[in-house]
Design brief:
This protein has about 525 residues and is mostly helical. About 70% of the residues lie in helices and about 0% in strands. It is built from 26 helices and 3 strands. Strands 2-1-3 form a 3-stranded antiparallel β-sheet. A hairpin with a 5-residue loop joins strand 1 and strand 2. The longest helix is centred in the C-terminal third of the chain and has 31 residues. The N terminus is likely disordered.
């Protein structure tokens, strides 16, 4: 009776049906139907919503196929379909949302992403974005939904939708942003996007890079999304990154199987997107900062494959990174000051470019030789002097990251140039340690790294006393943590000491003296080095 009282009160006030009750459920027997809606389980709500969506889509397909050249005759069905899609958004908040997988809604949503009407594409993108939003959907549900979308070819649908939408149209631009957000969310949720749909993931990467290149002189907020999503996709799949590194792309973003005069590799396109900052970086925007950092992250992903390293070397990538770290000086006007964004941009460029070089020189003789031949040692050892241990660095994490990358690059230079017998370049690297201050700094870094590792061992030992055996780390996990805590860097430093001491006895004697003064010895360093073999 309370339900009927509420209904009668709503009719008198004009608020009928009551708030929270769907008007569509009210018919001739309004009261009874409202009671059914209130008592309907979440599962039934999902079933009804999916059935309604399938019905409206089928009606629209029938009208379009019957009257393909008479839009006026299928317009009503299009309006009904879009309204149904908007209503379907309510399902995304229901705990039983994963029921849409078994009910067949996933392929329907994928098909709607490729609808001839761009408004329907954008409305569908809203629904899928909410379904794949980690802040809205439970993690277990998100995993199930993401895998279902991937299995139903969602990356092809996303690719086709991006190609269709016009970024100069305000509403469709919002749709593009939604689709890029969906792509980003699925990349995080799906274990290996390329394994689910390698072809369309590759097409997506080429498309996004082409869009960035088209807008190279006039960046937009959408370009920020393109750059961030491209970086996430390349970092999630080595096969996609390797493919993009050598893909031959023309000015229209089309792939070619043979090399033509108007095509360039994906690697070179990425480098071209940031090369303009060699000369001009004082008028940069926040968009430039985010896009450039994402592009360098994309380059790092490409450099994980031998193809990427080879193309990076051939495209003079090392030379560009060195120029980005230390730009050509230009005369400043009196009273001219750098903006806050320009300072942040320069800081980001230095550290991101150093990171890129560290990826490039790993197992690449060509990149190591380029770093030496392009006068990169001065810049590298300039960073090395900044590795001096300090009690309170401004940013501990950044300082440690920089230290690790510099040590890694020096280690890779010595390893690659020794193994492949390039005496001239090797001699130039070793000669940097003829400066006693460099030897002193090398030993200081060794000592501080060893202290960091010792601190970790003490904490690990103490934790074993307080944590029950079932919650303790396995031996493999302990070793991984130990390597991260400083063991890996200590092994690299030991290798540097061994190579430099072997190839130059005088420097070796200086290192041995400095180690002795710090309570260490070459024998101990050799023992650490052997542990890495």
């Amino acid at each position: 009776f309370l339900y009927f009282i509420e209904i009668m009160a709503s009719k008198r006030s004009g608020d009928f049906p009551p708030s929270g009750v769907s008007r569509r459920m009210v018919g001739a027997s309004g009261g009874l139907e409202i009671i059914e809606e209130r008592e309907m389980s979440n599962e039934m709500v999902v079933k009804k919503a999916v059935a309604a969506l399938i019905s409206k889509q089928a009606a629209n397909i029938k009208k379009r196929s019957t009257y393909p050249d008479e839009p006026a005759k299928f317009l009503d069905s299009e309006v009904d379909l879009e309204e149904e899609i908007q209503s379907f958004r309510a399902v995304t908040t229901i705990p039983e949302v994963t029921k849409i997988v078994s009910l067949g809604a996933i392929p329907i949503l994928g098909q709607l992403l490729m609808h001839e009407n761009n408004d329907i594409i954008c409305s569908t993108a809203e629904v899928i974005q909410e379904l794949t939003d980690p802040e809205q959907t439970d993690q277990d549900d998100l995993d199930e939904l993401a895998q279902a979308f991937a299995q139903e070819g969602i990356f092809q649908c996303l690719y086709e939708a991006l190609r269709r939408l016009d970024e100069t149209n305000v509403d469709e631009k919002d749709g593009i942003e939604l689709i890029l957000t969906i792509t980003d969310q699925l990349i995080d949720a799906v274990d290996d996007p390329a394994a689910a749909d390698e072809l369309n993931c590759k097409q997506l990467s080429v498309f996004m890079l082409s869009k960035l290149t088209q807008h190279i002189n006039s960046r937009t907020d959408t370009d920020v999304s393109y750059a961030e999503t491209l970086s996430a996709l390349l970092q999630s799949s080595e096969s996609v990154a390797s493919h993009l590194s050598v893909s031959l792309i023309d000015k229209d973003g089309l792939l070619h199987t043979t090399n033509k005069s108007e095509t360039v590799s994906g690697t070179l396109l990425l480098l071209n997107n940031i090369s303009r900052f060699v000369k001009n970086r004082d008028l940069v925007t926040q968009q430039d900062l985010v896009i450039t950092e994402s592009i360098i992250d994309s380059l790092c992903a490409l450099l994980l494959s031998p193809k990427g390293k080879s193309e990076f070397s051939a495209s003079h990538g090392i030379k560009l990174m060195l120029l980005l770290i230390e730009p050509r000086r230009k005369k400043k006007n009196k009273g001219e000051k750098k903006t806050s964004v320009a300072k942040q941009f320069q800081h980001m460029l230095k550290h991101s470019s150093l990171k890129c070089i560290s990826f490039a020189v790993q197992q690449s003789v060509d990149c190591c030789r380029a770093l030496v031949d392009d006068d990169g040692l001065g810049i590298l050892f300039g960073f090395f002097t900044m590795c001096a241990p300090t009690e309170k660095p401004k940013n501990v994490e950044e300082h440690r990251d920089m230290e690790g990358r510099v040590i890694s690059i020096i280690n890779d230079l010595l390893e690659n140039l020794v193994v492949k017998e390039h005496p001239d370049q090797l001699a130039r690297v070793i000669s940097k340690f003829t400066d006693p201050s460099k030897v002193e700094l090398l030993v200081k870094v060794i000592v501080s790294t060893k202290e960091r590792l010792s601190t970790f061992e003490i904490k690990l030992s103490e934790s074993k006393k307080t944590i029950s055996a079932e919650y303790q780390m396995s031996p493999e996990e302990e070793e991984i943590e130990r390597l991260s805590a400083g063991l890996f860097q200590l092994q690299q430093l030991s290798f540097i000491v061994a190579v430099v001491s072997t190839y130059d006895e005088q420097i070796g004697a200086q290192i041995n003296n400095a180690l002795s003064e710090s309570g260490l010895s070459n024998v101990e360093m050799l023992s650490i080095l052997k542990s890495s073999v």
